[in-house]
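All the exercises in this workshop are built on plain-text protein records. An example says more than a description, so a record of this kind follows:
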Amino acid sequence: MKVIVVDDEIPIRDEIRTMCLAEYGYEIIGEAANGRTALQLCRQLQPDIVITDITMPVMDGLELIRILQRTMPLTKYVLLTCHQDFAYASEAIRHGALDYIIKADISQEGILRVLDRARSIIEREQENLRKLENEQRNSFSRYALKNVWDAGEIDRELERIHFRIHYNGPNYFLVVENRLGSWAFMEIMISSTLEADKSIECWVLLADGLYGVSVSKEMDMEELMPYIRQRLRDSFEFLEEPFRIYAVKSHGKVLSGKQYMEEGRKLDRWKAQAFYEPGGICFDDSQIGEFGFRSAAHIEQIDALVAKREGEEALCRDVVRFGQDARLWPEELKKLLFLWLSKYISKLPEEAREIEGVLCEACDIRQLAQSFAEQCERHVSFSRRSEVRRAIRILQTEYQTDLTLAGIAERIGINAQYLGRMFTEETNEKFSDCLNRIRMERANELLQDGKLKIYEVAEQVGISNYRYFTQKFREWSGVSPKEVRKRGK
C-alpha cells in the first residue's frame, strides 16, 4: 500500500517515516508540508492512503480531502489531529476521512491499526470493483460477439469498463490460437492471466481468440508478451502445444470504439502472418503484406522441389522457403500441397481424407512442410526419371486393379523391358516387388483396422485369390493375415 504523509510539523513526519511500516506492507512514497503541495503530489503518485494533518498553512486537510475525493474516490484518508480539533475531525470523517489519530498518542501500533483498517476496506472495494468490471466486460464481450455494431453504444460500453483507445498511437490486440477445442476453458485461462498482469490497464474479449488490450504508452508489448506466455505456461503446464498467443500492433486510424473493433476484422491476415512466422510473439500490422491464392504455376514449383530428390529433410526446408516466398493464404497452401499429393495417393477415399486431415491440422509452415515431406517419403518416388515416376504413381493409385509391367509400359509409351531395367536401377526394387509391397502395406493397414474380412482385404488390394494373397502376405510380413487382424482387434 502506497502512503503519503502530509503535515507542516517536520518532527511528526520524521516520526512516521522512521516507523517500520515497510515490514507490514506499507511504503511511504512522499511527504508534503501543506495541502497544496500534497495535492500535486497525490495527483502525480496516486497513493492508496493519505495521512494528513487538519490544520496546515496554504491549504488545510479538509480542503485537500474534498478536492482529492472528486478524482481519487478509492483513496483512503486518515487525519492527524490535536485534542482541541475533535470538531474538525468529526466534520472530516463526515466528508470521507476514514479515521483519525491523536498526535499526542501517536505510535507505530496506532498507525498500523488505522492503516490495516484502511487496507482491508481498499482490498474489499477493489475486489468488488473487479467483479463489477468483469461483469461489465463480459456484458460487452457478449455484445461484441453478436456483431451488433452500434457506434454510440460501443463507446459507452468501453468507457464504462475504463478501456482506453490510443487515438494517436498504436493499439494492441492479443490473438489466441486454440487447439483445445473449448473456447470457454481457454478464455478462463487467458482472462485470469490478463487480470493478474499489472502492466495491462484493461482488456476486453472482442471475438473467439481475439482480445483488445489497453496498455500505457510507455509499455512495449514485445517485452510484455514473453512474461504473459511464461505465466500461462507456469499456471497451465499442459498448454505448451494446445495454444499459441501473440500480440499485434495495429497502426490503423482509430477515432471511435467501432473503428477500434473493426481493426479486429484483420484477424485472418494476422493469423496468416503468424502461420509463416512460428516464432513470432508480436507483429506490426503495417508490415504485414497481402496473401494470395494457388495457381498452376505453384504446382509446377512443387514438382521441381520434389524432383530434386534430396530427401525428406531437404524437401521440408524447400517447402518452408517456397511457402514464405509464395505467401499464399495458409488454407490455400494446404490445399495446394494436398492436390499435388493426390496424384500419387490411393484412390480410396478414407486414405485421401486421412492425408488431407494431416495437412490441414498443421499449425504453422514448419509443421505443414514436415507433414508434406513425410507424405512424399511414403507415397512419392524421388526418381529423377519421369517415366519411373509415372510408373510408380500408377502403382500407388491403381494397385487395386490388374497391373502388369507391359500394360504400364504401353501407357507410358516405352518398351516394357527397358522400363523394367530403368525401374530397378532408379528404385533398387523390381517392378513386381514394388507392386507387391504397396499392396501388402495397404493390406496390413486394412487388416489392423479390422472392419473387412480377409478375403475382402485381398480384393481391396487387387488380389482375387484368397490363398495366393495369404501366401504373399506371409512372405512379406512373416505372419498370417489372421494374426494381424487378431492383433488389430
About this structure: The chain has four domains: 2-124, 150-287, 294-380, 431-488.
